[in-house]
Amino acid sequence: MTRLNEVPFYDPHPDPLQGIEPASRILIVDSDAAQRINLRRILTQPGRQFDQCGGYSEILARLTGAHYDLILLDYRLPDGNSLAILEWLERQGRDEAVIMMSDDCAMDVAIRALRRGADDFLRKPCHEIELRRSVRDVLKKHASERTNRSLRERLVASERLHRDLAERSPDLVFSLDTEGCFKFVNPRVISTLGMSERELAGRRLSSLVEAGNAAELDELLRAQRADPARDFNAELHLKCPGGTTDGCEDGHVTVEVRGSPITEQDAGRAVYTGLYCVARDVSAHRRAEELVGFQTYHDQLTRLPNRTLFRDRLELAIAQAQRRCNCLAVMIADIDRFKLVNDGYGHADGDALLCQIAARFTDAVKSGDTVARLGGDEFAILLTDIGGAEEAQRGARTIMRALEEPFALSQGPFRVTLSIGIAIYPTDGDSAEMLTRHADIAMRQIKQAGKNGLRFFAPEYNSHHRQRIAMENDLRVALDRDQLELLYQPQVSLTENRIVGMEALLRWNHPDNGVISPATFIPVAEEIGLIGEISHWVVEQACAQLATWRTAGHSHLKMSLNLAQHDFGREDIIELVMDCLRRFMLPPDRLELEITESMAMQDGRSVAGRIRALRSAGVGIAIDDFGTGYSALAYLQELPVNVLKIDRRFVRDLDGLVTNPIVAAIAGIAKGFGLKLIAEGVEHARQALNLKALGCDVMQGYYFAKPLSAAEALRAIPLSPRPVME
Ligand code: C2E
Ligand code: MG
Ligand code: MG
């Protein structure tokens, strides 16, 4: 047998590829140890590692423990069949390259070996050059096959990954052809649109887009065809009647689409074949944005525009009116005595009333006009395109009429009146700020003048307004700065010929403006929410004073107090009064609370309930200024009132007349209902006599005494009042 190592070692052509071959491990299998050494010597070069073994069983042991790039396999093995090795490699899925070497020159040996997977066949003895070349070629081929295989595997893995990503993506992933028809859709597209893959295939995306949005999409796709490299970004409103995703709440879903062009190579040129799109469902986000936008510009309760939006619209309307030389009107409308609803009926009814008013306002204006809620019970109305003040007045009257029908509240029907201030562009201002301010000033004017009406702004209101603002500010600190004082006006009984009570009358000693009458500042205090604090102080102060007089021995005295409308809306009014009586150890019947007819007339059950509770605790309830308010007297039956105070203006008319029919009627009512009568504003003896003749015994007025300071009142109590001539 010719042995390889017997072949003279001569290499006239050194291998030009030597050195750039990748590192490799070679297993030499030959039963002849010298041959193995020789082969190794021939093949040695940097980067190659060798193992060797001599027989069949040894090979399998090596192959199970290691991996080789190449096996140089002698055909004839002493203990087994080399072809069986090839089969084993095949079965095991091994990728080792094999060069079979054999001294058998039969052709079929080579064929068998090559068929069973050998990469080359060398006949021994073989030339070193031939051996080296074969090894080099097989290793190269093997390396490139391995690279290809690994590339293929990576490609398959990457494709699988991308398919998985697309399939499982929470986004809508799809591809479109050049006409914008679906080619591929992921499951998310199917669930969002509620259509099957089959229904979607070949369908135009624009056919699923809301009408207003479809033309825009078609235009974008056309531009994309013309210039595939441009960015494709669009927000689409897709119809999804059968959609099952969260975003698809009202049969629509809003998606943000980003597209990348798909190109294919054709004769070395990139040809545009469609778009690969990823769309994100932004419906919830858009809805949240819309909500935030709505809340920023609207009142949450009535859903009317708020102050900010009103201002925007007014500015726009001013700009338009300027261009068209038109007029516009700004109205500030304030609900009269709204506080009573909130305080007396509760906030739920207050809210319901505001919503109903908002709806009636909206119905009462033209479609282009704006009704806004500025806050609380204050609304603003913008009438655009009007001819002038008369048209504004007609508009305001319509709005007022809209409130005439009673409103349905949980406690029954409720009537509302309105105070409206109007400013006209351009006469009353040319900016949103100025027109709104002037309308507001006009509204305050009508409020002060008795509410329930409308008033146009007039320049002189500005100074009234400034005074009013100054008063509000000063009033806020009046209590803390001890500027409030109670005066006491004696109430005289003619039969007893002595002072039987005192009416506490409030004064504000203003540091600059002198004494201010309660008739001036009490309504302001009511409007700015200070009345509660002031009334509390009055009750406390008057009770303390009565206690002092009682200690001085005047225990027969009664104290009358005036309470504001707001006070009976307070839940704690009973507790406040009773607490004072307890602390100052006053019998409840020594205290008399004066309320006006309008307070007694309030529909609020809670107000009536509070009056009843106080009365049943023994506290006196007097109707002040009786006869000036309402003509309906039903409330006298409903409420446990025990005193009527005849108003000054009826007493004044008693001057000349011996009998005044109104006073006579009031006296009759008092008698009929078993009520005590007190006449106020008695200035002359003649009035007192006439009152006495009509059955009125207790009187107060300048004839007997003006309101006095506490010290003066104390001095006056023991004295007999001025005699009334018979
Ligand atoms: P009122 O309760 O009817 O009080 C009677 C008013 O007539 C008092 O005016 C008193 O000074 C005045 N007066 C009394 N006798 C005569 C007279 O002979 N001739 C004339 N011309 N006037 C007379 P005043 O003190 O300015 O109070 C005005 C109103 O302010 C009161 O009317 C009452 O409704 C309210 N008021 C007074 N004090 C308080 C208070 O502490 N709280 C509340 N909420 N209102 C008060
Ligand atoms: Mg009074
Ligand atoms: Mg009075």
User: Which secondary-structure class do the elements indicate?
Assistant: alpha/beta
Which architecture of the largest domain per CATH?
Answer: Alpha-Beta Barrel
CATH fold naming of the largest domain: TIM Barrel
What does the overall shape look like? elongated
How is this fold's topology laid out?
Layout: E1 24-29, H1 33-43, E2 48-53, H2 56-65, E3 70-74, E4 76-77, E5 80-81, H3 82-92, E6 97-102, H4 107-115, E7 120-123, H5 128-168, E8 172-177, E9 182-185, H6 187-193, H7 197-200, H8 211-226, E10 232-239, E11 252-266, E12 269-281, H9 283-297, H10 307-324, E13 327-335, H11 338-345, H12 347-364, E14 370-375, E15 378-386, H13 389-402, E16 407-409, E17 412-414, E18 418-425, H14 432-448, E19 453-456, H15 461-478, E20 484-493, E21 498-510, E22 514-516, H16 518-527, H17 531-551, E23 558-562, H18 573-583, E24 591-595, H19 597-601, H20 605-616, E25 620-626, H21 634-638, E26 643-646, H22 648-652, H23 661-673, E27 676-679, H24 685-693, E28 698-699, H25 710-716
Parallel strand pairs: 1-2, 1-3, 3-6, 6-7, 18-19, 21-23, 23-24, 24-25, 25-26, 26-27, 27-28
Antiparallel strand pairs: 4-5, 8-9, 8-12, 10-11, 11-12, 13-15, 13-18, 14-15, 16-17, 20-21, 20-28, 21-22
This protein binds ligand C2E and magnesium ion (MG) (2 copies).
Residues 503, 562, 594, 624 line the site of one magnesium ion.
Quick summary of this structure?
The chain is an alpha/beta fold. Helix content is 43%, strand content 24%.
Walkthrough of the structure:
- By secondary structure, the protein is α/β, with parallel strands linked by helices.
- The chain has 4 domains: 4-150, Rossmann fold; 169-288, Beta-Lactamase; 300-457, Alpha-Beta Plaits, CATH 3.30.70.270; 533-705, Alpha-Beta Barrel (TIM Barrel), CATH 3.20.20.
- 43% of the residues lie in helices and 24% in strands.
- It has 25 helices and 28 strands.
- The strands form 6 sheets. An 8-stranded mixed barrel has the order 20-21-23-24-25-26-27-28, surrounded by 4 helices. A 5-stranded parallel sheet has the order 2-1-3-6-7, with helices on both faces.
- Helix 1 links the parallel strand 1 (24-29) and strand 2 (48-53).
- The longest helix has 41 residues, at 128-168.
- The protein is elongated.
- Mean pLDDT is 89; it is low at 1-17.
